[in-house]
Amino acid sequence: MSALPACPKCSSTYTYEDGGLFVCPECANEWSADAVAATDDDDGPRVIKDAVGNVLADGDTVTVIKDLKIKGSSSVVKIGTKVRNIRLIDGTGGHDIDCKIDGVGPMQLKSEFVKKA
Question: What is the pLDDT of residue 36?
Fold first, then answer.
């Protein structure tokens, strides 16, 4: 029997291969073999990139590329809003930018919805 990797989400050992993806039957997580190789080489610092592939760093200024609804509010962060002095974090739910937006307040953003200014 070949050694299939354990699920990176729930650590289940009951994974199986479906085409080019690995699938976990317990949590329904799917990931590629490339993702497994990337996690094995995770010795260096984490690199966070914006929507177009530019590497982000603490203190950068970014621009929002999509209208973002604010959860629990009727407010919206409009496209083109500049966010200054970001801080990179390892947040929950894919949020990896901590910032303060003028008129909105402190919040966390996903790097896929911003581009470096």
Answer: 58
